[in-house]
Amino acid sequence: MNSRIADRIATLVFWAGALLVIVILGAMIVYILYHGGKYISWDFLIKPPQVVRAGGGIGPQIFNSFYLLFLSMVVTVPVGMLGGIYLAEYARNNKLTEAIRLSIETLNSLPSIVVGLFGLLAFVNMTGWGYSLISGALALTVINLPLMVRITEESIHGVPDSLREASLALGANHWQTICRVVLPSAFPGLVSGAIITSGRVFGEAAALLFTAGMSSPALDFTQWNIFNPASPLNPFRPAETLAVHIWKVNTEGLIPDLRRVADGSAAVLILVVLGFNLAARWLGRKIYRQMTAT
Predict the structure, then answer these.
(1) Is 221 part of a structural domain of the chain?
(2) What is the CATH classification number for the domain harbouring 276?
(3) Number of domains in the chain
(4) Phi then psi for 225, rounded to 5 degrees?
């Protein structure tokens, strides 16, 4: 077998693998949207679920998911960016750096259920917060922080050294070069990484079962005092997210319109996660074109 035939065979194998993944993913998306898309309506998106009679929706679960996403990203993005900047610009090749990278890789490969059990011990029991939004947000931070660090580090490494050298040659110090040259050049990758990380947060369920809880109190959306137990902005209340709601509805089956709520919730979750990923690609390309004038 000559090299040309081997190259064609390898190319066909790679194309076949890629097409197989696309077909499987497309079939799953079409199946979920076909069975759940017909139940999506405005009332379904804003009403709370009904336990006694049919006709409920997923309004509180959607709000809890986005609020939990906000609380988690408030911690994940700045800490992850600072860690990535340190590894990319300041860290030297020594045992400390190797230990940090090993810790990041280990955290990045931990099953989410293990992080949930850690969150149950550290954030739920030891702090006394109980099942709450803040406990779930910190558990999700543990999951997504290694990814944000790696994305920041890789984005900074992608900036040409010539830009750094030009900035230093003009009299800027290292920190000024990072803030005014490196980070703006790496900004498209940082934005894409943050949005992709947000999509992971929205679809997480296992870690939240042990931290944020599997139920939500009756929320009063006219109450904006964050210390009120009925306030939707209270970070110390338990909160059932959309992903947890799908698991709970399918396992317990206590509501009369089980199939409608489960299928509709799954379709909404798929659309939101797809929206995060498509937004990341579109926004990253748009920012890159604006910054490079191409």
Answers:
(1) yes
(2) 1.10.3720.10
(3) 1
(4) -75, 110
- Tens-of-pLDDT digits for all 294 residues of the chain? 577 888 889 899 999 999 999 999 999 999 999 989 888 888 888 888 776 566 678 888 999 999 999 999 999 999 999 999 999 999 888 888 888 888 888 888 888 899 999 999 999 999 989 999 999 999 999 999 999 999 999 999 988 889 888 998 988 888 999 988 898 888 888 888 888 888 878 888 889 999 998 888 888 888 888 888 888 899 999 999 999 988 888 887 777 778 888 899 999 999 988 888 888 778 777 777 776 655
Is 168 among the domain residues? Answer: yes
Asked if residue 231 belongs to a domain, the reply is yes
DSSP 34-48: HHHGGG--HHHHHSP
Residue 1: inside a domain: no
Largest separation between any pair of C-alpha atoms in the chain: 74
